[in-house]
Amino acid sequence: MKPKASGKSEYYQYQQAYGDLISRISGHARRKMFASFMQAARPTALMSVLDVGVTSDERSDSNFFEGMYLHPQKITAVGLEDASELEQRFPGLTYVRADALDLPFADRSFDLAVSFAVIEHVGSRERQKKFLSEISRVSRRFFVTTPNRWYPIEFHTVTPLLHWLPAGWFRQVLRFLHLDFYASEDTLNLLDERELLALLPQGVQVTRLHYRLLGAISNLVIYVDQEPEQPD
User: Fold this and answer.
1) Would the pTM of this model clear 0.85, i.e. be above it?
2) 13-151+192-225: which CATH number, 3.40.50.150, 3.90.380.10, 3.40.50.360, 2.60.40.150?
3) DSSP β-bridge partners for residue 79
């Protein structure tokens, strides 16, 4: 994953016809997930936070973490696109344009790391595992979300049930529907809970905070504390 040229993100280009509805649903989900993060991580004003996978996109629900977190001066944001304008929008924030599979930070550089709906876009299972390995390496604790493959609606393409097909068939159907951007594994590689947990470094303790929409799990949400407090 090399840094992309500046410009608007392609990841939501197929949602234009449903823009307002998708934004409202996504915004509601992300507010809930932010609340789960705050409750699980209990961050303080002194903690350094890494946000992996910010975007240049200007949708109202994009880069929502930066808009909601009360201490932007403690955030280092990483992305492939030219999102340097985030430093103006959120004074004190530091933006680093870099590949999330090769983060330019020393081990345990951050108290916390977050990544919202990014891992499904980094490519193969091997690359997804490397993505989590890098987040685990540079942060003491991390919070990661991704859409659940077994939710009936695939939110990127706004298609029902097709993503339940074997991956090769799903990609063929997307090409037939002229949704070529998401037909590539490099662009969209959905996960279920078992697959996500299998990608984590061995031995970590995981808290599952999954988000439900209309009764079913729409987003997988996990929190990992690699340095839990020891009992007295």
Assistant:
1) yes
2) 3.40.50.150
3) 97
